[in-house]
UniProtKB/TrEMBL annotation:
Name by which UniProt lists this protein: DM1 domain-containing protein
InterPro entries noted in UniProt: DSRM_RDM1 (IPR057652), Rad52_Rad59_Rad22_sf (IPR042525), RDM1 (IPR040224)
Domain DM1: 107-167
Top-level lineage group: Eukaryota
Organism: Entamoeba dispar (strain ATCC PRA-260 / SAW760)
């Protein structure tokens, strides 16, 4: 019996492991075509081979409805070329509450997929230099900057849904201009991550004349501390809530940090 699609909420966090599908014994020549097949049902968070069992492909959907559609259409098995594959469901022994935040590019992809590439935009409301300093370390001059940024996301089809994010970054580097520029960029990135953390995408399911349709609606949620204007506020340090200390970066760890944003 096929499972029905339900209204659901998709937050900008790592999706639950229960949205997983495992395919064993995947031929290397079928891997790309299989991935394309699964993207037909919804946006994938992950599509890769297991490290401890390279012959098994692991797929995770952001949406549980996408997982349901995949099983409803493919059933228990499917063919690619001359190979037959079985869908292996993941049944967790206990429910886990995963709140790991997505990387910023993944947040963009999620919003593009459900809201539309040209249906939303972000803007910088303000970017303020809290302080800048020059320090001497072992005879080497270094420059310290700290910026606080406020960004906002707007939706063309949902003009009443407005969400702001707050980010603060502290950066130390040997080059004055690079340190200044880098601190600004990272402060903006932090504020945008904070902005998406306050959003969820509500999927509303309707059935009319036997046709099932889904509508994606962005909605704000309450997270963290509020400022004087009643807007959510969160300063980010190492991508975790910390309202006392900003991100402290230097030239050496900047490239690694960028990979995590």
């Amino acid at each position: 019996m096929q499972e029905s699609l339900q209204d659901e909420i998709i937050p900008f966090i790592v999706p639950p492991f229960a949205n997983s599908i495992f395919i064993e014994g995947v031929d290397e020549n079928d891997e790309n075509e299989m991935t394309l097949l699964f993207t037909k049902f919804g946006l994938l968070y992950k599509a890769n081979r297991l490290k401890d069992n390279p012959s098994t492909m692991h797929f995770i959907y952001y949406s549980h409805n996408a997982w349901v559609k995949c099983h409803n259409e493919l059933g228990n098995s499917f063919n690619i070329h001359s190979n037959r594959y079985e869908l292996k469901k993941f049944i967790p022994k206990k429910l886990t509450n995963n709140k790991s935040i997505l990387r910023l590019p993944q947040m963009y992809n999620l919003c593009n997929y459900y809201i539309g590439f040209n249906a939303w935009s972000t803007e910088i409301i303000s970017i303020t230099c809290d302080f800048k300093d020059e320090i001497q370390t072992n005879g080497i001059t270094k420059y310290v900057f700290q910026y606080t940024t406020i960004t906002q996301i707007n939706f063309i089809n949902f003009p009443n849904v407005i969400c702001r994010g707050y980010g603060r970054s502290k950066y130390t580097g040997k080059d004055y201009n690079r340190a200044d520029r880098t601190c600004k960029k990272f402060s903006v990135a932090c504020s945008r991550k904070d902005m998406f953390k306050k959003l969820v995408i509500c999927i509303l399911v309707t059935i009319k004349d036997g046709v099932c349709k889904q509508k994606a609606v962005p909605t704000t949620i309450e997270i963290g501390k509020q400022d004087e204007d009643g807007l959510n506020q969160l300063f980010i340090q190492n991508y975790e809530e910390d309202e006392e200390e900003p991100n402290e970066l230097n030239d050496q760890d900047f490239e690694e940090i960028l990979k995590l944003i």
